[in-house]
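At this stage, I wrote out one protein's amino acid sequence and its backbone structure tokens, and that material follows here:
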Amino acid sequence: QVQLHESGGGLVQTGGSLRLSCVTSGRFIVRYSLGWFRQRPGQEREFVAHMPWGADRGWYANFVKGRFTISRDDTKNMLYLQMDNLEPEDTAVYYCNADRTTDARTAGPSDYWGQGTQVTVTG
């Protein structure tokens, strides 16, 4: 049973930073692609970033524009998203995602999700 739990959201001003964390568990979770999606108010859930198992880098949505960094520490079963230079458009609920399919940039019925953590950017 794969389980995910996000934390680290909050209220920040434009240009501020947040570091989101996701605690992961489950047998063979290390072999999953781990990533982040977000859902802005009134919008569909969208891909933010992911990092495949064994990868030395992450992959990002175009809107990230170099501002975010995804990382995973498989020795601690942790996934992170460092978000810098936040903008009001980044206001959303951010979800941790685990995906064992070949396309981790698209949400699918076999994906696992955390409960979400709220990020609000003002100014």
In short: The first strand starts at residue 3 and ends at 7. The mean pLDDT is 94.
